[in-house]
Design goal:
single chain, 99 residues, mainly alpha, 434 Repressor (Amino-terminal Domain)
Amino acid sequence: MDNNHNSMNMTQSEMVELLAKALPQFRANLGISQQALGDKINVSRQTISSIERGEYQMPWNTFLAIIYFLKVNSGEIKPDRMTDVDRYLLVNPDGKQEG
């Protein structure tokens, strides 16, 4: 059994790298642009582009925001059952205060 795809044995940086490589396909499956994804998780289109090209390693909070976004849009997480933490990560992935 190949442990490279077992998230229990992966480091954070390995998970970030795996998501970055798969992100263009995930976006295509959802029919969402880099701009739209960036808008949803409060980062720029350029940040999403740099992540996908492997030029920028996304911070862990951005990784979590993208994961939550993908899970909500795939139906794994129901919007009416999201916690305040879930909503915060989607709207504010880098921990910056709004306003």
